[in-house]
């Protein structure tokens, strides 16, 4: 597997089209960080010191409540950011961690180096600001759903959002190319594993989805969208 920082970064949309000198600034000011599956990246305290770019792999950002319940704030894939610009909407990182869902490779930049890069490359700053704004809106929408929508609607919307982010089109449907446990799905929609398991089985019986090797295939995404109110 290729381990060059620039090889991966040049293939990320936000870094496309930079000059050799601009790529050199990134190379000098960053280092690679490899995480094994289930490895934790402390969120509180690191967010202001460094910014992480995900080269490959998947990371879930988790907030643990005082009573031990885990809420998944977001799931991030290759080409996205983790750090100060992508904090929780409330800006409070207490009890927040980032966990690798699979083997993951990150590019870490110290905050000073990142700020210097943003000054040197204004177009990169614009791209990152837009990316972070879209992600913030997505997280805020999910929080609103948790307050006002039923669990069935929240689950349908979560599955559709995951399909948009990690979906692979197949002849018989849209495969969410992400290994998710029922407990993780419950964490995404602020429900319980038992409730999510029961609802997934009901959607399966109705022919809306199938299970493929720990992944979910959306067989009838339009019907699922109707449940989600889209």
Mean pLDDT figure: 85
Name given to the CATH architecture of the largest domain: Sandwich
Helix percentage range: 40-55%
Structural domain count: 2
Low-confidence stretches: 85-91
Largest sheet: 4 strands, antiparallel
The ordered string of helix (H) and strand (E) elements is HHEEEEEEEEHHHEEHHEEH
Notes on the structure:
- GO terms for molecular function: DNA binding; DNA-binding transcription factor activity.
- Keywords: DNA-binding, Transcription, Transcription regulation.
- It comes from Trichlorobacter lovleyi (strain ATCC BAA-1151 / DSM 17278 / SZ) (Geobacter lovleyi).
- The protein has about 230 residues and is of the alpha+beta class.
- It is about 40% helix and about 25% strand.
- The chain has 2 domains: about 5-140, Jelly Rolls (Sandwich); about 150-230, Orthogonal Bundle (Arc Repressor Mutant, subunit A).
- A 4-stranded antiparallel beta sheet has the order 1-8-3-6. Strands 2-7-4-5 form a 4-stranded antiparallel beta sheet.
In short:
By secondary structure, this protein is α+β, with helices and mostly antiparallel strands. Helix content is about 40%, strand content about 25%. The protein folds into two domains: about 5-140, Jelly Rolls (Sandwich); about 150-230, Winged helix-like DNA-binding domain superfamily/Winged helix DNA-binding domain (Arc Repressor Mutant, subunit A).
């Amino acid at each position: 597997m290729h381990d060059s920082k620039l090889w991966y970064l040049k293939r990320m949309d936000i870094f496309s089209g930079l000059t050799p000198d601009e790529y050199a600034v990134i190379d000098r000011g960053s280092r690679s960080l490899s995480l094994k599956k289930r490895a934790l990246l402390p969120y509180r305290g690191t967010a202001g010191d460094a910014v992480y770019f995900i080269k490959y792999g998947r990371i879930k950002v988790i907030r643990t409540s005082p009573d031990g319940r885990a809420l998944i704030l977001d799931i991030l894939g290759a080409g996205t950011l983790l750090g100060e610009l992508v904090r929780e909407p409330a800006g409070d990182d207490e009890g927040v961690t980032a966990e690798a869902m699979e083997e993951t490779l990150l590019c870490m930049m110290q905050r000073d180096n990142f700020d210097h890069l943003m000054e040197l490359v204004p177009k990169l700053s614009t791209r990152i600001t837009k990316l972070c704004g879209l992600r913030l809106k997505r997280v805020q929408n999910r929080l609103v759903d948790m307050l006002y929508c039923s669990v069935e609607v929240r689950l349908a919307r979560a599955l559709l959002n995951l399909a948009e982010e990690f979906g692979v089109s197949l002849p018989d449907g849209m495969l969410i190319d992400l290994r998710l446990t029922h407990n993780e799905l419950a964490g995404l929609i602020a429900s319980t594993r038992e409730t999510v398991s029961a609802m997934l089985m009901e959607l399966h019986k109705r022919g809306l989805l199938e299970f493929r090797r720990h992944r979910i295939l959306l067989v009838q995404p339009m019907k699922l969208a109707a449940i989600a109110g889209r």
